[in-house]
Amino acid sequence: MADDKLLSVDEALARVLAGATRLSGDEEVPLFKALGRTLAQDLVSRRTQPPVAVSAMDGYALRAAELAAPGARLTLVGESAAGHGYHSALGAGETVRIFTGAPVPDGADTILLQEDAMIDAAGVGAASPPPPGRHIRARGLDFREGDPALFAGTRIGPSELALAAAINHPLLPVARRPRVALIASGDELVPPGAEPGPAQIIACNSYAVAAIAEAAGAEAIDLGIFRDDIAELEKGLEQARAAKADIVVTLGGASVGDHDLLRPALARQGMALDFWRIAMRPGKPLIHGTLGEARILGLPGNPVAAFVCALVFLGPLIRALQGDPRAGADETEAAVAGAPLKPNKGRRDYMRATLTRDAEGRLTATPQALQDSSLLTELARSQALLIREAGDGAVAAGGPCRILRLPGAFVAA
Ligand SMILES: Nc1nc2c(c(=O)[nH]1)N[C@H]1C(S)=C(S)[C@@H](COP(=O)(O)OP(=O)(O)OC[C@H]3O[C@@H](n4cnc5c(N)ncnc54)[C@H](O)[C@@H]3O)O[C@H]1N2
Ligand code: MOO
């Protein structure tokens, strides 16, 4: 059974996304700067493509009916190359040499593949003539001027860039990148490259969380490490306000210990708290609220907990703030368990797991032996999170399970 005192992950995500719509301040960016941004308006095609009927192959443009009779020969009268069409319509008994992407001359209705052409002194023939329409791309086959080709809320990836360029939009209207300020907290933390004291460690969470934020389209602003002191943390929050952060992400200090001072610091700054504990493992102490215009996400300090919470909550929030209608959609996939899974109580569990294919080719997720939420090595060696719902019973090896792929994960051989 779910721990009914704690908010479920789905309810928590719904609350994080409630009212999260595209931020004001749309921008126009050139194509080469648009990867990962989100369209703020529909993009209407400014072109029809192909602009005329063109050949899909190198060969000969002709009338199918004229080559149908056995032994028929056509007279080669000219050439149509991409960008340089044949100057006139095809006359009776004529054919034109044509290349891929070249305009099909008026009168021609099919393309004889170069490899299938028989050429002799009498002209161009074929052992098996092509039927009408073969290897011709009709005008407007891909897109037509005036039709919407890409829609507001679409995340721009490589294929969207190619289409946007082809429909002749050199500048793309995109949502403003949400500004995400990062505040790490803890007396034990020093930055990479520094010499830690005997009980200190190197802070790492900001790097992973900034990467997740930027991959979702945000601008990450690292405000550095703050000591476990309410006044210090308040300074961090003031810096986040000065940086005009849309989202303030705090890292650590979210739990109930005497040195977990974020909630009091946030309260003193005037945060309207929404929730601070959820039924998730790792990631129980997750703070959500608003502070002025900014949204607050207080991530737990344990690195894997911070990572998983950033994937599950911060990424979707950033996407929603750019107007992506699919933000928060279920991105899990079906897999089979590579090892027996124990019953799961209380909280939804996101177990770090490797991904392979079994002998039948099924996607197989095998949980790491150690699941402590401090273990970065296990995280870096994993390709997926194997999700166990609160109340799930035992599952035998080979039984069904659900996974969420980690960013950039491949399926190991
Ligand atoms: N009595 C209880 N204790 C704890 C509970 C609880 O419910 N009752 N929850 C545990 C869980 S679950 C987690 S997760 C942690 C979260 O605690 P905090 O958010 O307060 O995080 P800290 O105590 O500051 O740090 C926890 C751990 O993570 C390390 N850390 C923190 N920040 C970073 C960073 N930027 N880079 C690398 N490592 C970081 C820190 O050194 C600690 O080891 O609380 C449990 N306790
Ligand atoms: O968030 Mo804690 O274990 O759930 O690491």
From TrEMBL:
SMART domains: MoCF_biosynth
Known catalytic reactions: adenylyl-molybdopterin + molybdate = Mo-molybdopterin + AMP + H(+)
Enzyme class label: transferase
Domain (MoaB/Mog) ranges: 181-320
Range of residues in the leader sequence: none
Function: Catalyzes the insertion of molybdate into adenylated molybdopterin with the concomitant release of AMP.
GO molecular function, one term: molybdopterin molybdotransferase activity
Family designation: Belongs to the MoeA family.
Upper taxonomic lineage: Bacteria, Pseudomonadati, Pseudomonadota, Alphaproteobacteria, Hyphomicrobiales
Protein name stated in the entry: Molybdopterin molybdenumtransferase
UniProt-listed Enzyme Commission number(s): 2.10.1.1
The UniProt record lists the keyword Signal: no
Organism expressing this protein natively: Methylosinus sporium
Record-level GO cellular component terms: cytosol
Alphabetical keyword list: Magnesium, Metal-binding, Molybdenum, Molybdenum cofactor biosynthesis, Transferase
